[in-house]
Every structure is written in structure tokens, then in C-alpha cells.
């Protein structure tokens, strides 16, 4: 197929648009000077400053606790849901409910959970953020695993059942090993989604136990500092690594389109 | 016919590969077993979603008919006041301006995203994957960080202003942040990947012989694009537009950080009602208005897509 030469311009402009701000941010994080804007030579000192910032450290620990819990719960629930939806029902209503958390604006989910927590008088804390994150992370895990399921060979499962294995044995011995890469990719996604999630955490975290994005938000509102540049760069690097790893495990882009 | 209740029967009917008259355990046992297994797989996730998704939504939407308490909280006395308040010009303006900003962002994303998706679909196989991953990658990074990057670029002493002054194009730094244009840039930047993905998938699937036929019959590339390629990708265009519009419409971070902090969009308004004004019933009503608009758009998209796939 012919590539129209004129298309090269918007094509490269898109990538410039997507990556220039990130590149500038990463570059400025290496600034030796005090100003977040004028570059005065290379240094890693702002990364060192991060290590001494208690608020950031606390936020990081909170975020990791929430993200690990979310990953475990969302992976288990999402995988079961995906298998159930692909093999045991053809209900379009269930499909819609499973996808809803991914389509619903995060703000609406956030206020919904805040209302629920206050209706049952639950005190906010890391557990309330965790429970909330599982809702949407589960939907993403289920979507990734389902894509993998539709590509999986069903004749193996049928053979297992015809040979007398029950549903559980078939699931554990046949389905699960086939799904492993999809589940691993789903787990990685659940982890990054939770680490980066801000809106729901903003509504459902206790003020005394903010997650890292909530800490960043309160810092960003007061302006640009080289310290935030360094922190932002680190977060970008982590997300990039995790997503590329997930991409290599499964054809992530396929399941999203 | 077995005497089991409806769900296992339906399940069995939905499984085309099930043997016609039962395996070793006979029809009924297998149907009940399948039902139990289905329950085992679907039960935990669905219970979770009912308790932490459906019930919260039902609660929020039921609050729309109640009144706020004097010190926050909700007084369970029915009222239609929240809905009449929506029509107050003060709030109606915010709703309309969110609609406008989200629509502009969607249009810009389409104009930028379509040629990019087209170009990616034309790339050789190896580069295709790399180009696609490169588009999606920023989407999976921290949202706040990506918005923050634009503050670094655009603020008064930021890089863009410095560069323009150094080039002698301007004398004073321009006010690049805190206007509606910056909000649109932020929204496009945040959700462009969601436009490119469905467009790419559709363009990639197009049968190249259709375009060749059009060219062989004498159509210029522009004509071929308008009469062949574009009509065939309309459902994907709508999907992409929906994917960009929905999160843009409900966004409150971009207007706050790039738009200057006042209630520019409905998301900010909802946030304020819940966290500062503590008028939950009215906040819930705003959220209902937001969801209602999105549902209308979803239905319109599904309807158009079905019409196109039938034609």
C-alpha cells in the first residue's frame, strides 16, 4: 500500500506532541540549579531530595499497599469473571456490567463510593481506596483475560471434560495455564492503574493517609518545582517499564481496540 | 426435557459444543453442574460489582430527589428543587461550556488522530506495532504527571515563552496557561490515544482492493478517501469520538490545573458540591445529568454503528 507523503507531517507531529512535554520534564529533572525552568547543568540532586521527603515516602508506601492489594484482588476476581463470561453465559447484560467500570467517568464512580462509604458509616483509609480501585481494575483484568480466552483452543477444555474432569479440574489444569500470560499482563495493568489513579483516591482516601497521586496533586497545585520534576520522571519511567512488559506478554493493544 | 430451573437450561443452550444428549453423567447432572460452575466463576466478581458499583450508583441517583441537610448530609424529604436548579443559568452555563470544550477537544483529536491512525495502518508490520505502542504508552502513565508536564512547558517563565523571547518573536511572556485553549490542549493530550486505537483497527481491516478499484476507475486519492475509506470507517470515528468525549466531559483535573481553578467544567462543579459546598443531593443531580448525556451519546453511537454495519 502507498503511504501518502503528506501524511508524514501530522504523523510525526502527533509523536512530537505526545512526547515533547514528557521529554522536557525528564530533562529538567536533571537540573543542577534551583529553578525548575532554567537549566544549569546536570545533576541527580533532586532525586536525592526525594529520598528525604517524608510526605512523598508516606504516599509511596500507601500507594504500594493499595496497589498490591488491588492487584491480587482484581486479578483473582477479574480472571474468574472473564472465564465465567466467556464459557458459562452469553448474557449481554452481564457483559455490560463487566465493562461499566471502564466506561463510567471515574468522578461518578468516586462520588458513588464516597456516598456508599458514608451511608454504611465506614471510616476512610487505605482499605476504602483499595476496595474502590478493585472495581475498575477488575474490569480491565477481565477484558485482557477475555481476549486471551477467545484466542485459546477450546477443544482442550472439551477433551478434559469428556475425559471426566470436572469444571474445577479443567479450569486449574487446562484453562489457567493457557491463560497465564494474559493473567500476568492483566495483573501488571491492574498495578499501574492503581498506582496512577488519582480521582477515586482523592475522594475515598483519608486526609491522613493520602496515596502518592494525591500527594502530587497537592504539590502541583502550588506550582512547579524541580523536586516534582524528578518524582514525575520516576513515575513515568516505572509506568513505561511495566506497560512495555505487559505488552510483551500479551498483545495488549489488540485487546484495547 | 429436564425439570431444572431456567438458568442451567439457558446455559446449556448457549453452549454449542455440548453433546446433544448428555455425557457420562446424563443431561440433568451436567446442567446443574454447569450452573454451579458458572456461579462459582461469575458469583464473586458480580457480587463485588453489585455491592461496590451498582448500589453506589443507585444511591447517588436516589439522592437527586432529596434535600441537603443544614450541616451537609442528606435529609430524606422528596423535592424537585435539585432539577430546577440545574436550569439556573449559573449551572446551565457550566454544563454547556463543558459540552463545548469536550466537543472541541474531540474534534481536534479526530483531526489529529485520523491521519496518524491512517499512517500507522500503512506502515510495514514491524513498525506498525512500535508506532501503535508509542501512541498508547503515554496513556498508561500518571495522568497528573502528564498534565503537570504542560504546566512546565507553558507557564510564564516556562520553556515555550523562553524560547519565543530568545528568538525575538515576543518581548513579554505570553499568558499561555489558564484559558480555554489550554484546557482543550490538555484534554486532547490526555485522550488522543483513545481516538487513534479504534481508527487504526478499522483502517487496518479495510480491504485494500476497494481503494485500488476506486483508483483504477479514475478517482483521485482525495475522492477515494471521501467516497470509500471515510464512509467505511464511520463507526470507528464515532467510537473514537465517544472515547475522547466521555472522559473529557467529566474531567475536573485538566480545567483545574490548566484552566485556572475556577469551576470551568461540570466535573469541577460536582467535585465542589461533594467536597466543599457539601450539597450532596445537588452534586448527585449534576452527576446524573452528566451520565444521562453520556448514555444518550452511547445509544446514538450504537444506533449509527448498527445502521452502518447493516448497509
Automatic annotation (TrEMBL), chain A:
Keyword Transmembrane found: yes
Primary localization class, coarse: membrane
Any single GO CC term annotated in Swiss-Prot or TrEMBL for this entry: plasma membrane
Topology relative to the membrane: Multi-pass membrane protein
Family to which this protein belongs: Belongs to the binding-protein-dependent transport system permease family. CysTW subfamily.
Name this polypeptide is given: Spermidine/putrescine transport system permease protein
Keyword annotations: Cell membrane, Membrane, Transmembrane, Transmembrane helix, Transport
Domain annotation ABC transmembrane type-1: ranges: 60-246
Subcellular location per the Swiss-Prot or TrEMBL entry: Cell membrane
Transmembrane segments: 12-30, 64-84, 96-120, 126-145, 183-208, 228-246
BP term (GO), one: transmembrane transport
UniProtKB/TrEMBL annotation, chain B:
Residues annotated as transmembrane: 35-61, 101-123, 130-151, 183-203, 224-246, 280-300
Broad class of the protein's primary localization: membrane
Keyword annotations: Cell membrane, Membrane, Transmembrane, Transmembrane helix, Transport
Residues in ABC transmembrane type-1 domain copies: 95-303
Membrane topology: Multi-pass membrane protein
InterPro entries per record: MetI-like, MetI-like_sf
GO CC terms: plasma membrane
Region called Disordered, residue ranges: 1-29
Example GO BP: transmembrane transport
Subcellular location as annotated: Cell membrane
Family membership: Belongs to the binding-protein-dependent transport system permease family. CysTW subfamily.
The protein's name in its UniProt record: Spermidine/putrescine transport system permease protein
The organism of origin for this protein: Sinosporangium album
Lineage of the species this protein comes from: Bacteria, Bacillati, Actinomycetota, Actinomycetes, Streptosporangiales
Amino acid at each position: 500500500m502507498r503511504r501518502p507523503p503528506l501524511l508524514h507531517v501530522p504523523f510525526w507531529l502527533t509523536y512530537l506532541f505526545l512526547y515533547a512535554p514528557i521529554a522536557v520534564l525528564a530533562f529538567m529533572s536533571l537540573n543542577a540549579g534551583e529553578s525548575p525552568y532554567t537549566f544549569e547543568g546536570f545533576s541527580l540532586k533532586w532525586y536525592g531530595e526525594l529520598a528525604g521527603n517524608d510526605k512523598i515516602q508516606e504516599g509511596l508506601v500507601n500507594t504500594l499497599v493499595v496497589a498490591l492489594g488491588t492487584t491480587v484482588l482484581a486479578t483473582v476476581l477479574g480472571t474468574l469473571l472473564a472465564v465465567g463470561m466467556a464459557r458459562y453465559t452469553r448474557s449481554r447484560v452481564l457483559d455490560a456490567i463487566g465493562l461499566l467500570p471502564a466506561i463510567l467517568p471515574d468522578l461518578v464512580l468516586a462520588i458513588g463510593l464516597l456516598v456508599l462509604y458514608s451511608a454504611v458509616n465506614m471510616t476512610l483509609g487505605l482499605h476504602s481506596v483499595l476496595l474502590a480501585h478493585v472495581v475498575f481494575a477488575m474490569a480491565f483484568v477481565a477484558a485482557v483475560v477475555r481476549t486471551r480466552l477467545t484466542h485459546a483452543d477450546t477443544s482442550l477444555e472439551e477433551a478434559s471434560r469428556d475425559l471426566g474432569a470436572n469444571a474445577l479440574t479443567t479450569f486449574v489444569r487446562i484453562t489457567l495455564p493457557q491463560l497465564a500470560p494474559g493473567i500476568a499482563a492483566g495483573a501488571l495493568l491492574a498495578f499501574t492503574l492503581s498506582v496512577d489513579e488519582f480521582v477515586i483516591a482523592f475522594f475515598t482516601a483519608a486526609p491522613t493517609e493520602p496515596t502518592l497521586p494525591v500527594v502530587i496533586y497537592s504539590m502541583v497545585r502550588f506550582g512547579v518545582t524541580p523536586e516534582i520534576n524528578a518524582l514525575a520522571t520516576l513515575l513515568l519511567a516505572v509506568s513505561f517499564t511495566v506497560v512495555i512488559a505487559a505488552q510483551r506478554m500479551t498483545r495488549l493493544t489488540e485487546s484495547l481496540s | 426435557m429436564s425439570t431444572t430451573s431456567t438458568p442451567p437450561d439457558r446455559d446449556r443452550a448457549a453452549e454449542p459444543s455440548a453433546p446433544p444428549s448428555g455425557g457420562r453423567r446424563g443431561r440433568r447432572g451436567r446442567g446443574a453442574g454447569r450452573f454451579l460452575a458458572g456461579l462459582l466463576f461469575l458469583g464473586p466478581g458480580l457480587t463485588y460489582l453489585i455491592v461496590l458499583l451498582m448500589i453506589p450508583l443507585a444511591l447517588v441517583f436516589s439522592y437527586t430527589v432529596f434535600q441537603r441537610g443544614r450541616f451537609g448530609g442528606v435529609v430524606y424529604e422528596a423535592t424537585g428543587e435539585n432539577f430546577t436548579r440545574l436550569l439556573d443559568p449559573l449551572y446551565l452555563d457550566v454544563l454547556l461550556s463543558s459540552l463545548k470544550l469536550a466537543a472541541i477537544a474531540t474534534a481536534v483529536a479526530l483531526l489529529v488522530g485520523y491521519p496518524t491512525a491512517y499512517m500507522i495502518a500503512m506502515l510495514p508490520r514491524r513498525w506498525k506495532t512500535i508506532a501503535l505502542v508509542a501512541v498508547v504508552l503515554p496513556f498508561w502513565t500518571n495522568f497528573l504527571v502528564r498534565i503537570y508536564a504542560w504546566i512546565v512547558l507553558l507557564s510564564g517563565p516556562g520553556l515555550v515563552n523562553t524560547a519565543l523571547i530568545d528568538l525575538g518573536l515576543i518581548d513579554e511572556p505570553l499568558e499561555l496557561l489558564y484559558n480555554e485553549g489550554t484546557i482543550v490542549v490538555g484534554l486532547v493530550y490526555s485522550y488522543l490515544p483513545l481516538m487513534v486505537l479504534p481508527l487504526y483497527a478499522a483502517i487496518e481491516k479495510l480491504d485494500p482492493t476497494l481503494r485500488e478499484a476506486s483508483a483504477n476507475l479514475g478517482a483521485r486519492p482525495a475522492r477515494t478517501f471521501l467516497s470509500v475509506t471515510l464512509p467505511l470507517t464511520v463507526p470507528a470515528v464515532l467510537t473514537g469520538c465517544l472515547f475522547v468525549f466521555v472522559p473529557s466531559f467529566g474531567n475536573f483535573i485538566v480545567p483545574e490545573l490548566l484552566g485556572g481553578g475556577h469551576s470551568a467544567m461540570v466535573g469541577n462543579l460536582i467535585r465542589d458540591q461533594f467536597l466543599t459546598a457539601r450539597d450532596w443531593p445537588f452534586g448527585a443531580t449534576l452527576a446524573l445529568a452528566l451520565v444521562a448525556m453520556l448514555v444518550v451519546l452511547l445509544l446514538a453511537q450504537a444506533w449509527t454503528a448498527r445502521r452502518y454495519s447493516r448497509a
